[in-house]
Design goal:
The protein is of the alpha+beta class. It has five helices and 22 strands. Strands 1-2-3-6-5-4 form a six-stranded antiparallel beta barrel. A six-stranded antiparallel β-barrel has the order 7-8-11-14-13-12. Strand 13 and strand 14 form a beta hairpin. It is elongated. The mean pLDDT is 92.
Length: 310
């Protein structure tokens, strides 16, 4: 291969990458929803912008900057912190193209992908990062209890202003939104999750979550208590706070109770409880296994919907 041929291949690749970013960027907006710095969002439907819930810190005084630099007022239709999705409404027909979406299930480790955002304070400047898909697997539940349809970790650097911006494939289709994850990883919230959550937020304004009314911390069990459990385990959750008007309060749970089981399954981390308090839990009754004053007891708790302020 000659030097000229190599240069031609690199130039074609570079031009194709720029074209993919340009195609997606027509649907990417800057979101003015927090005081420290901006964030991004995607015009998912006419008049509907999807952004990252964590990046939309305010509930009012919101605005977006469109690709043509036009600034538009926005209102919060709803947010779901468990999936990190927020939905904003803007005036219909504003100057941005509706997202061309694709299926994130098509991504495999090693595929090239872009994070595309928009900087609203610099004449609607496009921001892009190139990386690869590090992992792509099945559905999972976030630490806050939300169901994400596909686990996609990206190996790329995410500019803070691109949080909530588009995950873009090599052809320029938008496969979801990008958000920062734990340990500085970049996660993708796939289009299937965005669609599902968006539909509920547009109708109800929020995603219902289950509520017990307990504050808990993980503790290590001493050997005598551990042996009373079946199967024996090394840790459980100690109750450090009880809302007296909550399901747990009505069920007479007490400070110092050790929560060791949920519906027959062992409970050893706070996330074990959070994962069980999704939308499907509201209105159900669960049997909790407790250790109180050294004795193993069981009690039933009817799960309520989490209050907005809880």
């Amino acid at each position: 291969m000659t030097e000229k041929t190599s240069a031609d291949i690199l130039l074609r690749l570079s031009n194709a990458s720029a074209a993919a970013v340009d195609r997606a960027a027509r649907s990417v907006v800057a979101v003015d929803g927090r005081d420290r710095f901006g964030a991004s969002g995607v015009l998912w439907r006419d008049g509907v912008v999807v952004a990252a819930s964590d990046a939309v810190e305010r509930d009012d005084d919101l605005a977006v900057t469109l690709p043509d630099g036009q600034r538009a007022a926005a209102t919060l239709a709803g947010r779901d912190p468990t999936t990190d999705v927020a939905v904003l409404r803007i005036e219909s027909g504003k100057g941005a193209a509706i997202a061309e979406t694709g299926d994130a299930a098509s991504l495999r480790p090693g595929h090239f992908a872009f994070a595309v955002g928009r900087r609203g304070d610099r004449a609607a400047e496009t921001v892009a990062s190139l990386g690869i898909v590090a992992t792509s697997g099945g559905a999972w539940r976030s630490l806050r209890g939300g169901v994400i349809d596909r686990r996609i970790n990206m190996d790329l650097r995410l500019d803070p202003v691109a949080e909530g911006g588009a995950l873009v494939d090599a052809g320029g289709k938008i496969l979801g939104i990008v958000v920062p994850g734990p340990r500085r990883r970049v996660l993708a919230i796939p289009a299937a999750t965005v669609e599902r959550v968006m539909d509920q937020l547009l109708v109800k304004g929020r995603i219902p979550q289950g509520y017990l009314g307990l504050g808990m911390q993980r503790v290590r069990l001493d050997a005598a208590v551990a042996q009373k459990l079946s199967p024996p385990r090394r840790s459980a959750l100690i109750v450090v706070n009880v809302d007296p008007e909550s399901p747990a309060g009505r069920a007479k749970l007490l400070l110092g109770d050790l929560v060791t089981g949920w519906g027959g399954a062992a409970v050893t981390h706070v996330r074990d409880v959070m994962e069980r308090l999704g939308p499907e839990s509201v209105g159900t009754t669960v049997e909790l296994e407790l250790v109180r004053a050294g004795a193993v007891i069981r009690t039933k708790v009817a799960i309520d919907e989490r209050p907005i302020a809880a």
